[in-house]
Every structure is written in C-alpha cells, then in structure tokens.
Design goal:
Length: 390
C-alpha cells in the first residue's frame, strides 16, 4: 500500500484524481475539463499533461491525457480584474486529447486500459444523492469492463438529444409524428442493450456486496442492491424482452412526451436502489449505516472488476479512513491488503494501526511535491525537517 500524508490543500487528492482520470477519461470531481487545469496555468496555446506507465498482465502501457488551452476570443486580452467584466481566462477553452502507447485514441480507447476504484468523502451521494449519481457510478463500472457498453451509452445519449429536439418541434407543430419512428427504433435498440448489461451487473454486484456488508456492519445487517428501471418489465432481462418493454412504454407515454418535449422512457431515467435489512437506505439509513453500505459497494466493485478482468484494479482511498471507526477501518484495510496497488491519502497517521503502517510505503505531499518518508511509519507523527529538504 502507498500512503500519502499531507495537510489539506497540498495536492493529495489531485494525485488520486490524476490516476482516476487515466482510468475513466473524466474527472471524479470537476464538472468541466477546464476545472482540472490550475488557473495560473490557463493561458493561450499552453498544455498540461497527465501520464503514467502501467504494467498490465506483463504488458507495459503508457497512458496519456493532454489538455490544450486555446484562446477563443482574441479581442479579450485583459487580465483578471476586480470588476464584473469577462476576464482573459473566460476567453480560453480547454480541449482534451488521449494517447495509448503514443497513439491517439478516443476516450473509449483509453477507458478500460487501467481499472480503478475510487473511495472518497462524496461517496455518500450513492445513497442520499440523485439517481443520476447512481447511474454514473454504474456506467463507470461497466464501461471499464465492456467497450461495447460504452459505445452504446454514447450513442444512446446522442439519440436522446436528437429525439428531445424533435419532440420540442412536435410540441410547437413544426414536425410530423412520423418523424419520431426512426429515433424510437434507435432508442429501443441501444436502450435495451444498456439495460440488459446493467441488470446483469447489478445482480452480481449485489451478490458480492452482501457478504462484505454483513462483516462490515458488525450487526449482521443484510445489504441488497436492486436495479430499478423506469419501464415495466414483463419478461426476462434479455435485450429482446427489454426492447418490447421499452417500445410499450414509449407508446403508452407518447402524449406525455410530446406535451413535455422530452424523452421520459429509457435507461437515462433508471435508478439503483440500496436496501439495508429490506429498507431503502436513502430514506431510512443512518449516516453510519449509509457509509457502511457504500464501503461494501466499493469493495464489491473492486472484487467484481478483478473477477471479470482477471487482473486487479488500482484502489484509491481519498482521506476516508479517518471517518471510519477502528473496526471498519481495520476490515477495509485487511480486505484491500489483498490488492497489489492501493493509494491512500491522509492528513494524520494516528487513526491507522501500526500493523498496517508497517506494511505501507509512505510519502509526504507538500505544495504539490511528493517527498519520501522514513521506513517506519508507525513511529512518525509528522514531517521531519529532513523529509522536507530538496
């Protein structure tokens, strides 16, 4: 295990975010690519790079993500001021490019090369957050395993956008109902494939997470994860049966869709439900129960990736150990001790038992720089003068 210790704001989370970016081609936190580049580094015709050498089943891969800044409004050359007028950096866009072993790739060509599981303080949103958070979690998991799923997801998102545009035109009378037929069929084809893969994944994820949660809870509480589609299922989870169900939902909701101008049937409206002892965790679980459920889900995610790929994902724990009691902290570290590469960030070594510290390789993170710590982490309480030199 690799431990990175540092005060808040020193760059520990940025390190883990960079690794996760190489796995899923997106930030775990930022909503736009521009937010990933430091403000001081944003200027016209500059670039930033995240890259790593990855050893996967004996094969060496170089993964690389480049961020290119470009000036979109040459007339705005004023630097940031104190008034409300647009600043110089407001005229700059950031574009993202991917390479694998030096060859240009699309995002879909990068995703899945490096599997990773991220644990962070925001994970409680999986329980208390909106359905979109849970769908994103599920989509990231499956996309790391199945490039075909990712392509279907990308096509489906474009179909929904085009279909919504047409529905708005129908609402104002500038399009004919027959024009929807093509987009209906496209949505049914891609949507049924997405739903079938999600249902299979959630079923197995629930099986793996259940025993993990049983141990973590310390109370023998049962965990179940259920996929909740927004269309009524009348048969099994095959793509053919799901296609019939989506088609029926579209026909039943045609008038509603036209009135609202949006697509209301399909996997973009589905949800993932977490049950603890048969009760919806989002409505009834305490924060302690919710945190335990999330930990079980994340540990199950790691085990599922390993099971499906035959190699281990990289584990990323971003300052979450201090939020756990000693028992759960020990169980999590024992479980993750079986993985070859685990990155852990913390502001304080105190909560981590000496028996785990003795197996960790430690580094200090200070102002964005990484410095090695001494070999015996169990007796270290903070950065030494020697550790900060250079």
């Amino acid at each position: 295990m690799l431990l990175f210790k540092g005060e808040n704001g020193q760059g520990k989370s940025n390190l883990l975010e960079a690794i996760y970016l190489l796995a899923i081609a997106k930030s775990a936190r930022a909503s736009t690519d521009r937010e990933l580049v430091r403000k001081q580094s944003i200027s016209a015709d500059t670039y930033s790079r995240v890259a790593a050498e990855v050893d996967r089943n004996g094969d060496s891969l170089r993964l690389q993500v480049d961020f290119q800044s470009r000036l979109t409004d040459p007339s705005n050359t004023e630097q940031d001021g104190e008034d409300d007028s647009p600043s110089y950096t407001d005229s700059i866009t950031v574009q993202k490019y991917f390479r694998v072993n030096g060859a240009p790739r699309r995002a879909s060509g990068l995703i899945g090369q490096l599997n990773a599981v991220m644990f962070s303080a925001d994970d409680l949103d999986l329980i208390y957050g909106s359905p979109s958070v849970r769908r994103r979690y599920l989509d990231i998991l499956i996309s790391q395993l199945d490039p075909g799923y990712l392509r279907s997801l990308q096509r489906y998102q474009r179909i929904v956008q085009q279909r919504n545009h047409l529905l708005k035109s129908l609402r104002v009378g500038s399009a004919m109902p027959a024009e929807l037929e093509f987009w209906d069929e496209e949505l049914i084809v891609e949507g049924s494939c997405i739903m079938a893969r999600r249902i299979t994944t959630v079923g197995r994820l629930s099986e793996v997470a259940g025993p993990i949660h049983w141990r973590l809870s310390g109370k023998g509480e049962a965990l179940e994860v259920i996929y909740r589609p927004n269309v009524a299922l009348t048969g099994d989870a095959t793509a053919e049966s799901l296609a019939r169900d989506i088609r029926g939902a579209i026909e039943d909701r045609r008038q509603r869709e036209t009135a609202q101008g949006v697509t209301v049937s399909g996997p973009h409206r589905d949800d993932l439900q977490v049950l603890v002892d048969g009760l919806d965790a989002g409505a009834y679980a305490s924060r302690g129960q919710a945190r335990t459920a999330v930990l079980a889900l994340k540990l199950a995610e790691a085990d599922y990736l390993k099971e499906q790929r035959g190699d281990e994902p990289v584990i990323l724990l971003d300052d979450v150990l201090s939020e756990l009691d000693a028992g759960r902290r020990a169980q999590v570290l024992e479980h993750l001790g079986a993985y070859q590469q685990t990155f852990i960030t913390t502001t304080d070594l105190g909560p981590i038992e000496g028996r785990f510290l003795s197996e960790m390789q430690g580094s200090l993170v200070v102002n964005g720089h990484v410095e090695p710590m001494g070999p015996d982490l169990a007796v270290q309480d903070g950065p030494s003068k020697e550790g900060l030199k250079g």
